[in-house]
Automatic annotation (TrEMBL):
Keywords: Coiled coil, Lipoprotein, Membrane, Palmitate, Transmembrane, Transmembrane beta strand. It comes from the Bacteria. It is a lipid-anchor. The lineage of its organism: Bacteria, Pseudomonadati, Pseudomonadota, Betaproteobacteria, Burkholderiales. Belongs to the outer membrane factor (OMF) (TC 1.B.17) family. It is found in: Cell membrane. Residues 163-190 form a coiled coil. This is Outer membrane protein OprM.
C-alpha cells in the first residue's frame, strides 16, 4: 500500500520485477568470437553483405500487414489509457437546457395568462479515488500500452528473421537447382560416352542402363527443388504484401547464398532482459496484472462520491398587467459513502482471481527468460556446428569432383569398370547438393542466433508504427487528436525498449 501526496492511499502491491535465474556467461561459444558494439545488432542482416536481402527487409518493414496490425494495437492501448485517465475527473455529468410556454384561457373574471420559463441545469458526479481504484487501473493500462509496444517490437524481430529465412532458403534452393542441372549435363555426357563405347563393344548393356538410371535420378531431383523455391517466393510475397511476380523482379541480381558472419557479439545472458521484446512483454504483463490486484482491492473499501447540481432559470408572466421574473440560481451539493457489505465475498474472490493471474504472469515471465536463454544457447551451438559441417562438406565436394575425374580417366583407359564411375558420380551429386544445403543451413543458423538475441527492433525507434496511408485514413474517419502522434514527453509516447518503468 502506498500513500500519495494528496492524502489518498493506493491499496495493493507495488510491482517489482520478478527475480530470474541468469547465467553469467553462455555455455556455448563461437570460435574466435569478436567483441563488436551492441549497436551492430540492430540492422543485423547487413552483416550478410547482400543488397537484395537488405532491400527486402526494408520493404517488409514498410509494407507487412501483420506488423501494421501490431501497430494498431498500440493505438488501441493509447485510447484505453486515455479513457482510464479520464476517471480521475468527474465520472458523470449532464447538461439540460429547456424552455416552457404555458397558455391558460380566461375563466370568468380571470383573464388569460401566458407563462414563459427558461432553465439551465448542470449535474456532476465524482467518485473520489481515495483508495487508488482508478489510479491502479491507469497503472495497469499504462503497462498494457508498453505491452503492445513490446509486442510490436517482437513482431519486428520475427518479421526480419522470417524474411531472411525465406530469402536464404530460396537462394540455397536456387544453388541446389543449379548444381543438379550441372550434374545432369555431366551424367548425360557420361551416358552418351557409355552408349558410344557400347556400340564399339567396349562396354556392356548394363553400363548403359546404369548410366541412364543415373540420368533419370538426377532429373527427378530438380522438380521438387523448383516447387520449394516457388513456395519460398510466395512466402516472401506475403511478408512483403506484394504479388509473387513483383517478388521475382525484386530477387534479380546476385543469386549466391548469403555468407553468414562467423563472429557475432552475443553479449551476456543478462542482456536478454533489455534486448528481447518478448521478455519485456512478459514482464510488463506481470506489471499490468499487479496493478489490477490493487484496483480489485480498492472495491473492498468505502467509496466517497460527490454530486452537484447547478441550475439557472428565468421567466416572465403575462396576465393582469405585466409581471417580470428575474433569474434564479440553484446550487445543490451532496456527498455519499458506499459500503460494500452484501457483495463483500464476491469482491474478495475477485481480488483472489487477480492475485492468481498475477502469479501466473510472474511464472510466465520467468519461463520466458529461461526459454530465451535456451534459444540463444541452441542457436550458438547450431551456428558453430553448421560452420564445421560446411567446412567438411566443402572438402568432401572438392574431393568427390577429383575422384570423378580420375574415375572417368581410368574408365576410358579400361582399368576400372563403370561401377567405379557410377559410384563417383553419385558421390559428386550427393556432395555437391550437400554443400549447397550446408551453405544455406549455416546462414539460417546465423539468422536464428540474431532472432534469439532479439535483434532488429531497434531500427523502428522513433518511427511511426503504421504507414502514413493508414494514419491518414484513420485521421479522416475519426478525430484521433494527439493519439496518432503523441508528444515525446507524453505518457502515451513510445518508451525506450530498454525501460520497464517498473510497470508504470
Amino acid at each position: 500500500m502506498s500513500v500519495t501526496l494528496t492524502g489518498c492511499v493506493t491499496v495493493g502491491p507495488d510491482f517489482k520485477q520478478p527475480d530470474v535465474t541468469l547465467e553469467n556467461r553462455w555455455l556455448e561459444s563461437l570460435a574466435g568470437e569478436a567483441q563488436t558494439a551492441p549497436g551492430a545488432q540492430a540492422a543485423w542482416w547487413t552483416a550478410f553483405n547482400d543488397p537484395v536481402l537488405s532491400a527486402l527487409e526494408q520493404r517488409a518493414y514498410e509494407r507487412n500487414l501483420s506488423l501494421q496490425v501490431a501497430g494498431l494495437h498500440i493505438f488501441k492501448a493509447r485510447a484505453q489509457l486515455a479513457i482510464s485517465a479520464e476517471n480521475l475527473l468527474p465520472q458523470s455529468g449532464s447538461v439540460s437546457v429547456g424552455a416552457d410556454h404555458i397558455n391558460t384561457s380566461g375563466v370568468g373574471p380571470i383573464p388569460p395568462t401566458h407563462l414563459w420559463a427558461e432553465h439551465l441545469r448542470v449535474n456532476v458526479g465524482w467518485e473520489i479515488d481515495f483508495w487508488g481504484k482508478y489510479r491502479r487501473q491507469i497503472e495497469s493500462d499504462r503497462a498494457q500500452l508498453r505491452v503492445s509496444e513490446a509486442a510490436y517490437d517482437n513482431a519486428l524481430v520475427s518479421l526480419f528473421a522470417d524474411v531472411a529465412n525465406a530469402y536464404i532458403d530460396l537462394r540455397a534452393l536456387e544453388q541446389r537447382i543449379a548444381v543438379a542441372q550441372q550434374n545432369l549435363k555431366a551424367v548425360q555426357q557420361s551416358l552418351t560416352l557409355t552408349q558410344a563405347r557400347y556400340k564399339r563393344g567396349a562396354s556392356s548393356q548394363l553400363d548403359v542402363e546404369q548410366a541412364a538410371t543415373l540420368v533419370a535420378e538426377t532429373e527427378a531431383q530438380i522438380p521438387p527443388l523448383i516447387k520449394a523455391r516457388a513456395q519460398d517466393r510466395d512466402t516472401l510475397a506475403v511478408l512483403l504484401a506484394d504479388p509473387p511476380d513483383t517478388v521475382d523482379a525484386q530477387l534479380k541480381g546476385s543469386s549466391a547464398i548469403p555468407v553468414p558472419p562467423t563472429q557475432i557479439d552475443v553479449g551476456i545472458p543478462a542482456d536478454l532482459l533489455r534486448r528481447r521484446p518478448d521478455v519485456r512483454q512478459a514482464a510488463l504483463n506481470a506489471a499490468a496484472q499487479s496493478a489490477l490486484i490493487g484496483a480489485a482491492k480498492a472495491k473492498l473499501y468505502p467509496s466517497l462520491s460527490l454530486t452537484g447540481l447547478f441550475g439557472l432559470s428565468s421567466g416572465e408572466q403575462h396576465g393582469i398587467g405585466l409581471s417580470q421574473w428575474g433569474s434564479k440560481t440553484i446550487g445543490l451539493f451532496s456527498a455519499g459513502i458506499t459500503l460494500p457489505i452484501l457483495d463483500r465475498g464476491q469482491l474478495k474472490n475477485a481480488v483472489r482471481i487477480q492475485d492468481a493471474a498475477f502469479q501466473e504472469a510472474v511464472l510466465d515471465y520467468q519461463n520466458t527468460v529461461l526459454q530465451a536463454q535456451k534459444e540463444v544457447e541452441d542457436a550458438i551451438a547450431a551456428l558453430r556446428t553448421s560452420l564445421d559441417a560446411l567446412a567438411a562438406s566443402s572438402r568432401a565436394s572438392d574431393a568427390s569432383q577429383r575422384a570423378l575425374k580420375l574415375a572417368n580417366v581410368q574408365y576410358r583407359a579400361g582399368s576400372v569398370t563403370y561401377d567405379t564411375v557410377l559410384d563417383a558420380s553419385r558421390s559428386m551429386l550427393r556432395d555437391g547438393d550437400s554443400l549447397a544445403q550446408n551453405q544455406g543451413i549455416a546462414a539460417l543458423a546465423a539468422v536464428s542466433l540474431y532472432r534469439a538475441l532479439g535483434g532488429g527492433w531497434e531500427v523502428a525507434e522513433g518511427q511511426q508504427v503504421v504507414s502514413e496511408q493508414i494514419a491518414e485514413q484513420m485521421a479522416q474517419r475519426t478525430d484521433w487528436g494527439r493519439l496518432l502522434n503523441p508528444p515525446a514527453n507524453s505518457a502515451l509516447a513510445r518508451a525506450s525498449g530498454g525501460q520497464l518503468e517498473n510497470g508504470k
